[in-house]
Specification:
It contains five helices and five strands. The chain is an alpha+beta fold and 152 residues long. It has a five-stranded mixed sheet with strand order 1-2-3-4-5. Strand 4, helix 4 and strand 5 form a beta-alpha-beta unit. Helix 2 crosses helix 3. The longest helix is centred in the C-terminal third of the chain and has 15 residues. 26% of the residues are buried.
Length: 152
């Protein structure tokens, strides 16, 4: 299926708690590890029943991708006009067909509704595929430095 035809069939909607099993399964297909406890906690942290800035992409009634987003609130001097992309995942059968970009564009519109002016994402330096994706949708290097402390 060509990407244009596929994207015409995609329905994007807000993530619901009932979507948990589908998200766990996509995550499992990507990482090779099932993490239902992690995802249940993530759903609770991002707003309980319906995380407000989180979306899913459905194809023929089946969830094939998701994006989890949040809004900051003055943590570490970061203003509340910042949106964060926490996690993005697409069923490996549908990766590199435009679904992640489609989801990003949809969440960007959600952020705009709340007056968000900047969107941030944290990416591992070695994750070139994810870095390439974020660069392709318009991200640039920001002015926040990630600090890390290793507990030994």
């Amino acid at each position: 299926m060509m990407a244009e035809n596929l994207l015409q069939k995609i329905k994007v909607r807000k993530l619901k708690f009932d979507d948990l099993n589908a998200i766990v399964e996509i995550d499992h297909r990507i990482l090779g590890t099932k993490r239902p406890t992690y995802w249940h906690q993530k759903f609770e942290e991002t707003g309980g029943e319906e995380p407000s800035k989180s979306l899913v992409a459905e194809l023929d009634g089946k969830i094939e991708g998701f994006i989890i987003g949040t809004v900051s609130g003055w943590e570490f001097g970061v203003p509340n006009t910042i949106g964060w992309i926490d996690t993005i995942g697409v069923n490996p059968d549908y990766q590199k067909k435009g679904i992640a970009t489609f989801l990003f564009q949809a969440i960007m519109e959600e952020f705009k509704k709340d007056g968000i002016e900047n969107i941030y994402a944290l990416v591992k330096w070695e994750d070139w595929d994810l870095m390439s994706f974020f660069k392709a949708v318009g991200f640039t290097k920001g002015n926040i430095i990630n600090l890390e402390y290793k507990i030994r």
